[in-house]
Write a structure and sequence with these properties.
Structural class: alpha+beta
Radius of gyration: 29 Å
Distance between the termini: 37 Å
Strand content: 15-25%
Number of helices: 7
Strand order of the largest sheet: 1-10-7-8-9
Helix content: 40-55%
Keywords: Membrane, Transmembrane, Transmembrane helix
Order of helices and strands: HHEHEEHHHEEEEEEHE
Oligomer: single chain
Length: 302
């Protein structure tokens, strides 16, 4: 819908901008001609003063129009890029569903009902909320290392917020610089301008990129699972837990969905979340691969 209605409106804005540019050019030519007069009359002097004011105002208006046009072009570009990457990632993940993993008997789903560690383990969601799309997946680096990495969808969400915010901030501050507003209004007003223009989007995007920027790694060489600052010894990992969470939509009409957690269960019953997203097929496949890699059982209540 945005591309159907937004692009024609953008073209209309550009046409109006070109018309203003044409009128301004005529005024500038008239002003240049008047400025060459050796003895301008009183009427000529009044006209020169009037043209200077008109041209100054229209130049500011033109800069403001340029700012809006470039901001809109940037928005269309980044939203289009997000759509393309999202479509490519969905296609890849759909193809991945067809992969059949060959695993040993030790990696089959086990019944946790009679396990003493399972009796100490909570089956409530470890990370309430989750996502309704595939946010993370396993990637085998080599025979001794498996990485938990973000999908393209997860990456593009963070970078889209970041780049759209930067797009609006950049052109807003460029306009303020070109009109000397940046130096006249002081640092407090400039901070307000940052947040009013696109700072909130920029900060949200930065949080997404930095918060989920580091990938977790299972490393057989080190016999450790590394997640951020955490380092968990393989000998302390007892089982893999799979569970389902129903995420209720908000009162403003947000849709409800199911999210699925893959957690590591430690010897003392404590849990560490590995991934939490909306595809049971992918999370079960990743659990089987990981269980075979670590030689531990899978407990599932999905």
């Amino acid at each position: 819908m945005f591309f159907v209605f937004g692009v024609p409106q953008l073209y209309e804005m550009w046409e109006r901008h070109q018309q203003i540019e044409t009128v301004t050019l005529r005024h500038e030519l008239e002003l240049d001609a008047l400025m060459t007069l050796e003895s301008p009359s009183k009427a000529d002097q009044i006209r020169i003063e009037t043209l200077n004011k008109i041209i100054s105002q229209r130049n500011k208006a033109a800069l403001s129009k340029d700012k809006t046009i470039y901001q809109t072009i940037g928005l269309v570009f980044f939203l289009g890029l997000m759509f393309v990457v999202f479509a490519i990632d969905r296609r890849k993940l759909k193809q991945t569903k067809q992969i059949q993993y060959q695993v040993e008997d030790s990696a089959q789903f086990d019944d946790p009902s009679f396990d003493t560690v399972a009796q100490q383990t909570s089956w409530n969601p470890l990370h309430p909320g989750g996502s309704n799309f595939v946010s993370h997946k396993l990637k085998k680096i080599d025979s001794n290392r498996i990485k938990v990495k973000k999908t393209g969808t997860m990456n593009i969400i963070g970078w889209t917020f970041l780049l759209i915010g930067f797009n609006y901030i950049f052109f807003e501050f460029l306009f303020a610089y070109q009109t000397d507003l940046l130096f006249m209004q002081g640092w407090l007003k400039n901070i307000q301008l940052f947040f009013k223009s696109g700072g909130i989007f920029f900060i949200i995007g930065l949080f997404f990129v930095l918060r989920w920027g580091q990938n977790s790694v299972f490393d057989k060489n080190m016999q450790q699972f590394k997640k951020g600052g955490q380092q968990i010894s393989f000998s302390n990992i007892y089982a893999i837990q799979l569970l389902t969470e129903f995420v209720q939509g908000n009162s403003q009409g947000g849709s409800s969905y199911y999210s699925y957690e893959l957690n590591l269960v430690l010897n003392n019953g404590e849990r560490i979340n590995v991934m939490d997203h909306g595809s049971p097929t992918h999370i079960e496949q990743d659990a089987i691969v990981l269980a075979d890699f670590l030689k531990i059982p899978i407990w599932s209540r999905m």
